[in-house]
Amino acid sequence: MKTLYLVRHAKSDWTHDVPDFDRPLNERGHSNARGMAKHLLENGFNIGCFISSPAKRALTTCRYFAETFGNSNIKKIEDLYEPLLEDFTNTVVRIDDEYSSAALFSHNPTISQFASSLTSEVLEFPTCAVAVFEVDCEEWSQFEVAHKTLTHFFLPREIL
């Protein structure tokens, strides 16, 4: 059994005149990212592998989670910025099997679409939302055909 976490980046700051890729988190985004990571840790969740879009707001969100879980090893995947649906699947099937859990940090609208494609529910990800899926497989390469169960969907407004 594997566990997949899908995390939309925390709230970004639109007041800076920078390209979309370089947009930082705003104050609430920093607070929510720290708080959501802490919530997961304190409730017994475990993340072994951290994979992020290289965009500043996603990578910063990912760093808060990685630090909270005592892990500084973050893999940046270009395809998670402005991703297509298949970019998520292609990323998941390449995760090293030594990890029983992994978190992907990315952007809307595609992260919502991908999460919804894994369940019978329509999931809309506000910033810093986290979906947790149990994936019934021994190897990540089996992800596409494995049964997936949404076990949790955390929204910052409901827990922070």
UniProtKB/TrEMBL annotation:
Q: Which SUPFAM superfamilies match?
A: Phosphoglycerate mutase-like
Q: Where does substrate bind?
A: 57
Domain of life, per the record?
Answer: Bacteria
UniProt xrefs under CDD domains: HP_PGM_like
Q: What is this protein called?
A: Phosphohistidine phosphatase SixA
